[in-house]
């Protein structure tokens, strides 16, 4: 962990909050949720989300478990933005929500990003829906941050609009650099400079970031993904191995210091 910074603590219990806006960025849906009474989350923290209505397969079936989503942005009026992609029944239901629908929200939870050490320049590296926590972190860091984002194709690359001045890579070459976002990172680290890397994305991307940063002796903070059922450490469903033993991502992460990991395991 990165010095175990103090975290913003969630209020007790989940809150029923209204969706005030829904917009699409290519393959992604951004839901804006009014939370004027809630605490301002740290960049990298997440919330557990569940639709207030029709949250499950049917009246006689068990409801879906809540889903963990990073806070992508907090606006001055307390509105929270979440970035979603329809990849299964639970996310499909969340992506259907629009203004006027209600959402159960538990959070903010977990530990987020820590400021760059020793005056280092922040380099933000995102893959797919993993761009979400980097948006709020860019807001906090300001103009100093370099942003590198990788996507599957042009439709997914529409999500780059959620951050400012991002350099984009696409696997199929349909937008920006043709190839992996880690190729952009390798070029950046190879040119020298006093940097600290912040990354969120799929496990293979995070492992490549970890290895590159270790090779160049550059510190990195990684927001890891793992299946979460509760969000507050009770179920032990999100444990990951570190050099010092297993940790629960929902309370000890999701942001971990890359140096604490032998490797990023794929689920």
Distance linking N and C termini: 21 Å
CATH class group of the largest domain: Alpha Beta
- In total, how many domains does the architecture comprise? 2
The portion of residues forming beta strands comes to 25-35%
Along the chain, the helix and strand elements come as EEEEEEHEEHEHEEHEHEEEHE
**The named CATH superfamily of the largest domain:** Nucleotide-binding domain of ferredoxin-NADP reductase (FNR) module
Average pLDDT confidence is 93
Which stretches of 5+ consecutive residues score pLDDT under 50?
none
Instruction: Give the helix tally.
Output: 6
Total number of strands: 16
The outline comes out as globular
Structural class category? alpha/beta
Helix content: 10-25%
- Largest pleated sheet: 7 strands, antiparallel
What's the CATH architecture name of the largest domain?
3-Layer(aba) Sandwich
Radius of gyration: 18 Å
Question: Strand sequence of the main sheet, in spatial order?
Answer: 4-3-7-1-2-6-5
CATH topology (fold) name of the largest domain: Rossmann fold
What this model shows, in words?
With 267 residues, the protein is α/β, with parallel strands linked by helices. It starts with 14 loop residues before the first strand and ends in a 10-residue tail after the last strand. The radius of gyration is 18 Å and the shape is globular. It folds into 2 domains: 15-108, Elongation Factor Tu (Ef-tu), domain 3, CATH 2.40.30; 117-260, Nucleotide-binding domain of ferredoxin-NADP reductase (FNR) module (Rossmann fold). It has 6 helices and 16 strands.
